[in-house]
Amino acid sequence: MAKFLVQKSGPLNGEVVISGSKNAVLPIMAATLLTEEKSIIKDVPALRDVDVMCDLLKSLGAEVNKKLDENTVEVVPSGELKFEAPFDLVKMMRASILVLGALLLRTGRALIHLPGGCAIGERPIELHLKGLKALGAEIDPAQLDKGIVDAKAGKLKGSTIYLDFPSVGATEVIIMAACRAEGTTILENAAQEPEIVDLANFLNKMGAKIKGAGTDTVKIEGVEKLHGVEHHVIPDRIEAGTFMVSAAITRGRILVKNMLPDHLKAVIAKLRECGVVVEVTDEGVIVDGSVNKIVSTDVKTLPYPGFPTDMQSPFMALLTVADGPSIVIETVFENRFMHVAEFNRMGANIKTEGKAAIIPGGKQLKGAPVVATDLRAGAAVVLAGLVAEGTTEVSQIYHIDRGYENFVEKLKNLGANILRIDD
Ligand code: EPZ
C-alpha cells in the first residue's frame, strides 16, 4: 500500500495556490444531468472523487471529457440516460447519492445501492428521501429495507420541505430535483455551506430560478428547461484551512492564494485566538505562525457558518502542540474522532468522552506509524508529522488522494520534508 514518510520539518514558508472545491464540484457535476446540453466545468481539482463522479456520469450514459491537465471537465448528458448507479462506483464514493435528484427528474427513476456507513458515521439519507417524497417521488420500501434507493416519479411538484438537520447533501439533492418541478418549492432549515451557493449559481446560470441559497430558507421556482453552461468552481475552503494550519503548526509564514477568506471566518477566528497572525491582502491570505506563541483555544464544530467539521481533525493537530489545554466538541458527525488514536500514538495524550475530546496540549510529538482514517484525518496526521520528532509513516493515503490535489508537491514547495512511497 502507498504511504507517506513525513519527517520533522522547519517552519513552512512560501506560497500555495488552492485548488477548486471537491465539495462544490461533485454536486455541480451531478447537476449537469438536468439538461441534455453540454456543460463545461473549470477549476476542477484532479482528485480521485472527481474521477469516480466522471465514471458515474459515464456509466449513466453521459459523454464526459476530462481534461484535468487544464482542470476542466466537459459533460454532454444528451440522449437516453440509465437510471441505475453501479454499486462498485457508489461504494467508492458515497457522494454518488448526489445524482439522485437530477437522475429522478431526468429519467423518472433512480436506483442507487447505498454504501452504508463509513469511518465517521452512519451517513443516513432519510432527509434526502423525505424531500423527494414531498416533491412526489415514490421510494420503494421493500428495496429500501435492502439498502437500495429505488425512486420513481412522474412530474415532480413543488412543495414546502423542512429539513430536521441542515444536511448538505439533502439540500443539494432537493434543490436539483426542485429546479424543474412544477411550481415552487420552499426548503426550510437548509444547509448554508458555500458549496450550496456555488451549486445554486451554476443552476441559475442554466436557467433555474433559485433564491436564498446560503441562507436557511431556499426558494426554487420550477422551470421547464435548463441549458448547458460554463462554470468556474469556487476554491476549496477546507484545503485552504488545512494549509493555513500547516503554517501555524510549523511556526512558518505562508501566502495562501486563490482562497475566499469569507468562506473560512470561523477557522480564521480560531487561528487568531491561537495567536496566529492572519492578514487578508490582495495577493491572498498571509498566515504567520512565527510571530506569537501558539496557545490553545476551544473548538465546537457546527453546520456553516459555524466551525466546519472537516477542519476538526486538522485543527486538532495544532491543538496537540499549542500551549495549554483545549476541548474539541464534534456535533456534526457521531464518530469523527478516529484520528485521536493516531495522534495519541504520537504522544498527544488526548482523552475523548462522547462528543468531546480533551487535548492537554504543549506536547513534543514523536513520529510513529499512523493511519489516515478519513481524508481530513489523513491530512491532519501529516500536519502532526511535520513537527513530530523523527519519522511519521502515514498509511491508507488513498483517503488523502480523494480530497487534496498535489498534496505532497504543495507541501514540499513550502519546505515540508515529505515523501510518497508507492507500492
Ligand atoms: C457533506 O457531506 C460533505 N461531503 C462532507 O465532507 C462534510 O463533512 C459534510 O457535508 C458536513 O459539512 C460532500 O459535500 C461531498 P450532511 P454530507 O448530510 O452531505 C446527518 C469531506 O471530508 N444526516 O450534511 O454527507 C449525517 O449523519 C466530506 O470532504 C442525517 O442524520 O453531510 C451527519 O451526521 C466528509 N440524515 C450530518 O447530518 C440525513 O438524511 C451531516 O451530514 C442526512 C444527514
Structure, explained:
- With 423 residues, this protein is an alpha/beta fold.
- It folds into two domains: 3-19 and 235-421, Enolpyruvate transferase domain (UDP-n-acetylglucosamine1-carboxyvinyl-transferase, Chain, Alpha-beta prism); 22-232, Enolpyruvate transferase domain (UDP-n-acetylglucosamine1-carboxyvinyl-transferase, Chain, Alpha-beta prism).
- The chain is built from 15 helices and 24 strands.
- The strands form six sheets. The protein has a four-stranded mixed beta sheet.
- Helix 5 (126-134) packs parallel to helix 7, helix 11 packs parallel to helix 13 and helix 12 (338-345) packs parallel to helix 13.
- It is globular, with a radius of gyration of 21 Å.
- The model has no long low-confidence stretch (mean pLDDT 96).
- The structure holds ligand EPZ.
- Ligand EPZ is lined by residues 22-23, 26, 95, 121-128, 165, 167-170, 191, 309-310, 332-334, 375-376, 403.
- Residues 22-23, 26, 95, 121-128, 165, 167-170, 191, 309-310, 332-334, 375-376, 403 line the site of ligand EPZ.
